[in-house]
From TrEMBL:
It comes from Stegodyphus mimosarum. GO terms for molecular function: metal ion binding. InterPro entries: Ureohydrolase, Ureohydrolase_dom_sf. Gene3D superfamilies: Ureohydrolase domain. It comes from the Eukaryota. This is Agmatinase, mitochondrial.
Length: 47
């Protein structure tokens, strides 16, 4: 998925970036994924 414009998490990352999800009330469960780099993981924590 690295280097791909669209991947399995794109929908949620875009929704967060566009302010479409209330991050205090949304929980994402079951989406497969890996931690590619510590920067990618930190982005998730920061949200």
């Amino acid at each position: 998925m690295m280097g791909c414009k669209i991947a399995h998490g794109t929908t949620f990352k875009c929704a967060v970036g566009e302010g479409l999800l209330d991050q205090r009330r949304v929980v994402q469960i079951g989406l497969r994924g890996t931690s590619y780099t510590s920067k990618d993981y930190q982005w998730s924590v920061d949200q």
